[in-house]
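Anyone up for a design puzzle?
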């Protein structure tokens, strides 16, 4: 969630000449350079999220956490994470200094490399920072990369991203990633659960996404998703729900070109829009964003 105070910037967001020498923007994680304060920040973030997620995160996320060499006491070593991931799903974690160009990002994903920021937020930024750090990227994303369906879907997304660049459809494809891998919910027998990394790594949005009366919770329709703008400045106004992770995997078998064409012919949708044909798990009352708009 965005706070009123502008956060101190890190990595590429801090400006200056931070472009790595490597063409793929990878750098050494620099694990030995993390300070005691860095590890303490990780510990604070890790402990409060692991207390919050049982009963809210999906079973696959919780199992991934159990199977990974990841704990509260120190920032994980990407090499150790990659050893486990490679054995399970063929993925590895590569360190980058922050957000990378689209073509670099897609190429990494297409080759089963997940780029993760090597820096960690400051203690006063626990609930928001401008670009994803090691906690968001590792805690939020890596547990789900242990799942074969997600592992295959994200690779296919990278391949699709490289194609979409040539077709001019990046904005539509970005919405798919945002509303699934970052802010997606899924159905379990015991209720809606989180699988999106942007929620799973956020103390405040974890509760908001599942328990607040404010947002809509809508059954995912891929073409509708491509038309829907999203918020980067606050909690989401709508969350989209899949039946299970195999549904995401099935998307990799779809020809997106006709979907892009149909979506482009229709009006773009705002984050809080509800359509007559939407299948709703909950129609939100919009109270959170309405209060923010009125300065409450």
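Challenge accepted. My sequence:
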């Amino acid at each position: 969630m965005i706070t009123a105070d502008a956060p101190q910037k890190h990595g590429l967001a801090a400006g200056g000449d931070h472009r790595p020498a490597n063409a793929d923007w990878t750098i050494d994680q620099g694990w030995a350079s993390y300070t005691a304060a860095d590890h303490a920040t990780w510990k604070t973030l890790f402990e409060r999220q692991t207390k919050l997620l049982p009963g809210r995160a999906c079973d696959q996320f919780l199992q991934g956490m159990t199977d990974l060499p990841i704990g509260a006491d120190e920032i994980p070593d990407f090499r150790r994470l990659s050893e486990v991931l490679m054995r399970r799903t063929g993925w590895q974690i590569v360190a980058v200094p922050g957000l990378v160009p689209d073509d670099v990002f897609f190429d990494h994903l297409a080759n089963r490399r997940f780029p993760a920021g090597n820096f960690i937020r400051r203690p006063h930024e626990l609930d928001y920072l401008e670009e994803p750090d090691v906690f968001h990227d590792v805690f939020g994303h890596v547990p789900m990369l242990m799942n074969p369906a997600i592992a295959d879907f994200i690779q296919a997304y990278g391949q699709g991203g490289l194609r979409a660049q040539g077709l001019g459809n990046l904005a539509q494809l970005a919405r798919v990633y945002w509303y699934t891998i970052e802010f997606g919910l899924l159905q379990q027998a015991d209720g809606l659960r989180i699988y999106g990394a942007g929620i799973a790594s956020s103390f405040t949005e974890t509760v908001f996404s599942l328990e607040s009366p404010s947002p809509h919770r809508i059954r995912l329709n891929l073409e509708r998703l491509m038309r829907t703008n999203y918020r980067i400045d606050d909690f989401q106004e709508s969350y989209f729900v899949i039946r299970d992770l195999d549904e995401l995997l099935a998307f990799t078998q779809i020809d997106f070109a006709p979907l892009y064409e149909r979506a482009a012919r229709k009006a773009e949708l705002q984050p809080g829009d509800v359509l007559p044909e939407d299948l709703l798990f909950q129609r939100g009352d919009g109270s959170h964003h309405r209060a923010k708009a009125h300065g409450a």
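A detail worth pointing out: The two ends are 16 Å apart (CA to CA).
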